[in-house]
User: What shape does this take?
Amino acid sequence: MRNQRFLRRKAASQYLDETWGVIRTPSTLAKYAVIGGGPVFRRDSRFPLYLPDDLDAWAASRLSAPMRSTSDQVSPKNSAADCCQQTELGGERTQAELPHGNGNGK
Assistant: This one.
């Protein structure tokens, strides 16, 4: 690991924006530190500290492969085939997914 300077949350947020164009506010980084899903950080007492290499790795991991169209990649959530397949496999459907939302098809 090369000698890097640790960044506090505000500086880490600015770094992500300036380097990657990824906009995450300091409060969002704080939320990620609690619930997970954010960049790796260290602490000095109560102060979270981020390394630029860790921010780079996290930002790169969030980006998709290059695409020429939004239809290049279909989200499994929006695929009708996946919805039907789950139902055929005995998956439960919520009221919102049932026809007309009331469960009786009327």
User: Anything to note?
Assistant: Strands lie at 42-44, 47-49.
